[in-house]
Design goal:
By secondary structure, this protein is an alpha/beta fold. It has two domains: 4-31 and 280-434, Lyase, Ornithine Decarboxylase, Chain A, domain 1; 34-278, TIM Barrel, CATH 3.20.20.10. It contains 13 helices and 21 strands. It has helices at 18-25, 34-47, 65-73, 83-92, 108-116, 127-139, 178-183, 208-227, 252-266, 276-279, 312-316, 336-339, 427-431, and strands at residues 4-7, 10-13, 16-17, 29-33, 54-58, 77-80, 99-101, 121-124, 144-151, 173-174, 191-197, 233-235, 269-272, 283-295, 298-303, 322-324, 356-361, 370-377, 385-388, 409-414, 417-422. Strands 4, 14, 15, 16, 17, 18, 19, 20 and 21 form a nine-stranded mixed sheet that branches. An eight-stranded parallel β-barrel has the order 5-6-7-8-9-11-12-13, surrounded by four helices. Bound molecules: ligand LLP.
């Protein structure tokens, strides 16, 4: 359930009218709903409850400390992929929250930082990394807790740029040779090889890959135990898809049905690393229409959000629903998810009299700078607010300063209140790291 809905013809986030947020903080602005975020975290907690899992929110989806803190307060640990994300996790807390550290290129400094800060588990992605962690940990008089990340070699299941479990990608250890790697580190003085990790890709809309991956994982866990490793953790990663269009995604219970039998068979404690599933539909990006123009028979609506704010359409041709914050006259109120489904399938409003196909583009100097293409939308005028939906995950966390654009503000809504959780950047912020720039 997403807490974005139209009331009196105006989009609300929980009980806050979106125009009030835009008026208070300007646009572009990311607006997050606490209730939506906690609802989705709760869905995963409920679906996987029989396994009593450790749920490590994947901070790369949205690293804002306030959002991460909210999740920490509701029982989540964190999945990080860099020293910077580890730092964010520590800032978010609570103290003692479990942090798992994946990523193919951990530096020595990051490894030491993680060990000093009691990393719960390293997800190790290569043999060289494994030996490096072992050496560094032994040098610090420690044993590093380690899961080997396996690439289970599954058929393609999502966008090629984010599919992490097909043969030949840079992630994980090859399933054909992983046991040769683990055989060499039995009783290593700096390593406690206690887990197996896989993250299959993102977003994944079917539970089948988890079933196949889980089955391969169970076999490996048994083999690693035979080698003498005390394997107690099975980390199945993240990747659960969300509804970007209407209802293409599966509920958490479907993924649980696929994963829980493997967990039981492995005799391990389950770790999950969901990101998008929790925050994806908990956030929208709100922008203001600047200009309209027509070129080559195409109608462009130029608004103040751009690929630097939300790069997913440009990078992956991703689909995000877009709809005006103020409904055209005469449309009945309803949840935003129904209203803004202006795909060509199953949408009562696509052929709504008066909608026109428009290109929703931003101010950045690239033809690839768009948020939506060929989208039926009501006629828009200068100053209208637009909502880009499902922007909570991989929106702000992938935002950049390209074209020297200040990154957007972020606002968290809880019930009838809103608060700024990241201020809009200033021109001074843009040059702050350039040494001696004062002239
Ligand atoms: N665990 C690991 C090791 C990961 O690499 C990722 C995502 C996750 C967990 C969380 O996946 P999630 O539950 O959020 O799907 N920028 C792309 C997505 C890249 C995902 C990278 N890894 C996008 O906007 O679609």
């Amino acid at each position: 359930m997403d807490h974005f809905h139209y009331r009196g013809g105006v989009l609300h986030c929980e009980d806050v009218p979106v125009p009030a947020v835009a008026a208070a903080y300007g646009t572009p602005v990311f607006v997050y709903s606490s209730a939506t975020l906690l609802h989705h975290l709760g869905e995963i907690q409920k679906a996987f409850a029989p396994a009593n899992p450790i749920i490590c929110y994947s901070i790369k989806a949205n690293g804002n400390i306030h959002l991460a803190r909210l999740m920490g307060q509701h029982g989540a640990g964190f999945d990080v992929t860099s020293g910077g994300e580890f730092y964010r996790a520590l800032q978010a807390g609570p103290k003692g929250a479990k942090v798992v550290f994946a990523g193919v290129g951990k530096t020595d400094t990051e490894i030491m930082f993680a060990l000093e800060n009691d990393v719960f588990l390293f997800d190790v992605e290569s043999e060289e990394e494994l030996h490096t962690i072992g050496k560094i940990a032994a040098g610090m008089g420690r044993k590093a807790p380690v899961a080997l990340r396996v690439n289970p070699d599954l058929p393609p299941k999502t966008h090629v740029k984010t599919d992490t479990s097909v043969k030949g990608v840079k992630f994980g250890l090859d399933i054909d040779t992983i046991l040769e790697v683990t055989a060499k580190v039995v009783n290593h003085p700096g390593l406690n090889v206690c887990g197996l990790h896989m993250h299959l890709g993102s977003p994944i809309l079917s539970a089948e890959p988890y079933k196949q991956g889980g089955a391969k994982g169970v076999r490996l866990v048994h083999e690693m135990r035979k080698q003498g490793h005390n394997i107690t953790l099975l980390n199945m990663g993240g990747g659960f898809g969300i509804n970007y269009r209407l209802d293409e995604a599966k509920p958490a219970s479907v993924f649980a049905e696929a994963i829980l039998p493997a967990v039981k068979e492995s005799g391990c404690q389950l770790i999950l690393e969901p990101g998008r599933f929790i925050v994806g539909n908990a956030g929208i990006l709100v922008s203001t229409v600047l200009f309209r123009k027509e070129t080559g028979g195409k109608k462009h609506v130029i608004q103040d959000a751009a690929m630097n704010d939300l790069i997913r359409p440009t990078l992956y041709s991703s689909y995000h629903r877009v709809w005006p914050v103020q409904l055209p006259d005469g449309l009945p109120d309803r949840p935003a998810v129904d209203m803004s489904v202006n795909t060509d399938v199953g949408n009562p409003f696509v052929d709504m009299p008066g909608t026109i196909r428009q290109e929703v583009v931003g101010p950045v100097c690239e033809s690839g700078d768009f948020l939506a293409k060929d989208r039926p939308l009501p006629p828009l005028t200068r100053g209208d607010l637009l909502a880009v939906f499902s922007a909570g995950a991989y929106g702000m966390s992938m935002a950049s300063n390209y074209n020297a654009r200040c990154r957007a503000a972020e606002v968290l809504v809880t019930g009838g209140t809103h608060r700024l959780i990241r201020r809009r950047e200033t021109f001074a912020d843009l040059v702050a790291c350039e040494v001696d720039c004062s002239g």
